[in-house]
Request: fold
Amino acid sequence: MNEKTEALTKKQQQILDELNNCAHEVSGQQLHRTLIETSSNMGLTTVYRHLRTLQLKGLVRCRNLPKGETLYSPVNRDHHHLTCVDCGQTVVLKSCPIKNIELPKTQTKNFELLFHTLEFFGLCNSCRQRQKVAET
Reply:
């Protein structure tokens, strides 16, 4: 157990454990359904409140999709994405292209870095082809 996880409540630990058990990112609603199925009596508002707390502790990252949905995953899962702005299809990059980048110390000296996200937006082949057909 590390310093960040020592002060977690039982419900926060349940949420973090469930996120670690998920193979992919999940929405707050998906996470809530999973917790209900595993007999955790936790309301949807409580799930979102604890997700926000875990994010502020640097244990959970969130990713906002172009259509407004937010997905959550543990910070230790360092995934980055290519996302289609039309259909929302997402491709996970095999590695982090900025993993070894160093930020200027003068800009970060009064800032505690918790995590980073990197996402590229564009059009997938299907949406690009569909748009070409629509233009003709």
